[in-house]
Amino acid sequence: MSNHSPLSNESIGPSGPEPDRQHEHRSRQLLRSLKGSTQFLSFWVAIALPFVHLPLLAQGLGDPQVTVTFLTLLAINVCTLYVGHGHKQ
User: Fold this and answer.
1) By CB neighbour count within 10 A (0-12 exposed, 13-18 middle, 19+ buried), where does 80 fall?
2) 5's torsion region: left (phi>0), alpha (psi -120 to 50) or beta?
3) Cα–Cα distance between 60 and 85 in angstroms, integer?
4) Which of 35, 49, 51 is nearest to 86 (CA)?
5) What's the Cα-to-Cα distance from 3 to each of 6, 7, 9, 11, rounded to whole Å?
6) Angle at which helices 50-59 and 64-84 pack, to 10 degrees?
């Protein structure tokens, strides 16, 4: 008796290490692309964000809501400086 299956095995890809390498290569390319884009965006946000600080400082930090906004923007600016510091190095 034959153990012949009506389904074809052609749809099943090779189980060797080659597909794993291709997948790993694509993953590395995606991570590099995301890293570059994130650094680019963070770099330019870190440059532009201080221009938002100026009107808040000119208004004064007497109002608690303005102070919280200023400190939040300052924290975001520090984070974007850290993330974007490697852009174009």
Assistant:
1) buried
2) beta
3) 30
4) 35
5) 10, 12, 14, 19
6) 160
HEC string of the chain?
A: CCCCCCCCCCCCCCCCHHHHHHHHHHHHHHHHHHHHHHHHHHHHHHHHCHHHHHHHHHHCCCCHHHHHHHHHHHHHHHHHHHHHCCCCC
The pLDDT-based confidence of 64 (bands split at 50, 70, 90) is very high
Where residue 23 falls (left for φ over 0; alpha for ψ -120 to 50; beta otherwise) is alpha
Distance, CA of 10 to CA of 8 (rounded, Å): 5
Nearest CA-CA partner of 51 in 29, 30, 21, 73: 73
User: What pTM did the predictor assign?
Assistant: 0.63
Q: Which amino acid is at 65?
A: Q
Q: What pLDDT is attached to residue 65?
A: 93
